[in-house]
Amino acid sequence: MTKNDSSHKIFVKIPFGFGTYRLKILRSQKWGAIDLMILISLLEGPKTSQQISTESSLPKQLIIEILIPLMKAGWVEIVNSDNQFLFTLTERGVAVADGEDLPPNQDPMSVVRSFLIDPLTEECYRFEKKKRKQNYLIYKRPKANSLAKQYGNYCIELKVLNPKFSPKISEILNCLPNENEEVVGIEDEYIKENFSNSLRFMLACVDSENRVTGVPDISTTLKDAIIEAAIKQRKQLLEAPLLASTSKSKAVAFEVTAKERAFQERKVDPQMIKVISGGDDHHQHIIECITNAHSRLIIHSTFINPSTIELFIEYLLACARKRVKIDILWGQTEPDETIKLQQYNQIIVAIEKFQQRINSEGLSTQINIHSTPTGSHSKFIICDDKYGFWSVTIGSCNWLSSGFNRFEASVKVTDTSFVADCLNITSELATGSLGVSNMLSRDLAIEASRLSKVIDNDHNKISNAVSVQLLTSREHHALIKQASDRVSDSFFICSHRFSFAADRPILTPLISAKKDNPNLSIKVAYGRTSGTMKNRDVRLLNKDLEKIGFDIIKADDPQIHAKFVVWDTKNLIISSLNWLSSSSKGHDFSELGVYLHGSSFGDEILNSFNAIYD
Predict the structure, then answer these.
(1) Contact 168/449 with Cβ under 8 angstroms?
(2) How far is residue 190's CA from residue 187's CA, in Å, rounded to a whole number?
(3) Are 249 and 153 spatial neighbours (Cβ–Cβ below 8 Å)?
(4) Is 17 among the domain residues?
(5) What pLDDT is attached to residue 1?
(6) How far lies 30's CA from each of 25, 70, 180, in Å?
(7) How far apart are CA 339 and CA 341, in angstroms?
(8) Which of 122, 175, 428, 515 could join 167 in a cystine, given CB atoms 3.0 to 4.6 angstroms apart?
(9) If we measure between CA atoms, which residue out of 397, 426, 130, 151 comes closest to residue 280?
(10) Assigned domain for 448 exists
(11) Residues of the domain holding 322
(12) Would you say residue 447 lies in a domain?
């Protein structure tokens, strides 16, 4: 291979997910002070463009250019009087001229927008087929293969293992509108969830200095993989010069594995975080959430108990009368056992009766108790208040089936970005076990997209900020393993249930940590045994654990239902996962937790626990 050949451009074939949505877009006109000034001047009566020009000291041509958009908005019209063309306000124009600002005044438009999905990061890029200045092209598989063949051994395929083609709907919505547009709806017929079935390909060009062209503004992760693939192919051509002269060799590929995505760590003011413990505090908290909700309230409870709903139905009705939109979701799926199935069907009937009662109050559009279960064991409340602050409360409490007589643990986080993450999760849960998009799932995705664009207080200026991270199911046990490797002083784990499932993912790394650090304090609290584990089994296990220095607490008076972990006091996880009995396998959102790092929230919940169980 010659020196000239070694600097030859390398082409890398990359797969992208591809989708198309038909959206309802509200396109806002950016009105200015001059627009409002002209409307106010017309409150005095009809005027010619020359009169307006003279009064405002602005050129006549500029006045006409300003008046045209105002006419298109329906606020100004032309009338003929004494052979003069006069501009006058319409009724709508009179109404808006009295305000401090001019509102966007268009009806939503139906538009079709296409997008591409990064196979490594799931980032989304808008694709416009007719955009002249677009610096990349996409191809279907046959065309991409044909082009790759033409480039011969100067082309290599990026083969992505476990590609990611399921982005959050809100991430898709964030990339599709223009700067002056807002997505207000998604039309049914264009919803397509499995984007891996409609792949498109790009041919990225990598020059001798590893500059990449022919692709959009892609993620650093994908760009690095493209460069690595090109470097590999250059090296191969240098080692086997004959390959450079033939295009008949076997196609080569560079394998790269897509990483699992995690929710971004948020920096939050400690004053915006509240740890809730105990049954009474949880009972009071749900009442406060319902009473103070301003425009939106979402409650997700694993189980529903009609008697518990009866406790709150009047609060819910009063909340709905204030025009708050309320959605109640639950996770319990249809059981196989006959006795449990009868109980399940009774709950379905009770839900229907509650909905009929709601409808009879004329509040059918305000409160919806969704009968289709989500299949999730998570428990949370999302709401906003009259000051515009959004919050989410996540933890162990089954808000709509609890008797509020057990020890619970939850955490309330008031942070717009964090709530947007939770709305994305709720959007997916709302699709049910079949994953079918519906009005609620799309509505929540649009709300999540809107909130993700809202900038909270400047978190960088918070000197004592707490790191807050949303944990999906699969992340729970991995974080415990990480914690057991790093813990230095103390570790406390609290679980409602205890079973043999706790042996490997939880106890094994803790036993190893205790052997490495004999001075490490490890306490394990549980409420009851579960599965095939009997009381005698747990007694034997407890003896073995106590021999190596574990402190075991059976917390059953009152019964403990909380699920939390504290290590070295500064680290706290509050979750819906039964740490000592449940698997973290299943879909990502079957369990939800919150990891707090910083401040004294760990000590706070331990003090609450010790006050009852010491």
Answers:
(1) no
(2) 6
(3) yes
(4) yes
(5) 45
(6) 15, 11, 8
(7) 5
(8) 122
(9) 397
(10) no
(11) 279-396+416-421
(12) no
Please give the backbone phi and psi of residue 364, each rounded to the nearest 5 degrees, phi first: -65, -30
- pLDDT tens by residue, 139-194: 999 999 999 999 988 999 999 998 888 888 888 888 998 877 888 888 765 455 66
143 shares its domain with 43:
no
Amino acid code (one letter) for 372: T
Q: At 87, which CATH number? A: 1.10.10.10
Higher pLDDT, 323 or 34: 323
Q: Is 159 helix (H, G, I), strand (E, B) or coil?
A: strand
pLDDT tens digits, residue range 258-277?
A: 887 788 899 999 999 999 99
Q: Which two tokens stand for residue 447?
A: 């709300």
Q: How many domains does the chain have?
A: 4
User: Of the ranges 11-15, 245-249, 330-334, 469-473, which one carries the lowest mean pLDDT score?
Assistant: 245-249
Q: What angle do CA 313, 317, 322 make, to 5 degrees?
A: 150
How far is it, in rounded angstroms, from Cα 491 to Cα 174? Answer: 41
* Domain harbouring 473, CATH code: 3.30.870.10
Residue range 185-243, pLDDT digits in tens? 887 654 556 688 889 999 999 998 999 999 988 999 999 999 999 999 988 888 776 65
| Identity of the residue numbered 19 | G
Identify whether the C-beta of residue 397 lies closer than 8 Å to the C-beta of residue 379: yes
Does 166 lie in the same domain as 251?
A: yes
* pTM, entire model: 0.81
Q: Look at residues 223, 257, 291 and tell me which one is the last residue of a structural domain.
A: 257
- Cβ-based burial of 432 (10 A; exposed 0-12, middle 13-18, buried ≥19): middle
**DSSP 8-class letter at 260:** P
* Cα separation, 410 vs 394, whole angstroms: 5
Which of 533, 536, 511, 535 lies closest to 522, judged by CA? 511
The dihedral through the CA atoms of 293, 442, 379, 466 has a sign that is negative
Where do we find the tokens 């939800």? 592
Residues 42 and 20 in one domain: no
Asked whether residue 360 is assigned to any structural domain, the reply reads yes
How far, in Å, are 13, 430, 527 from residue 20 at the CA level?
Answer: 22, 21, 50
pLDDT tens profile 43-56:
888 899 899 998 88
Q: Report the 10 Å Cβ neighbour count for 323.
A: 11
Calpha distance 86→80 (Å, rounded): 6
Specify whether 540 is located in the same domain as 484: yes
Q: What is the largest CA-CA distance in the chain?
A: 105
Residue with more model confidence, 109 or 144:
144
Tokens of 89: 């306000």
Average pLDDT over residues 279-292: 97
244 pLDDT exceeds 60? no
pLDDT score at 96 = 77
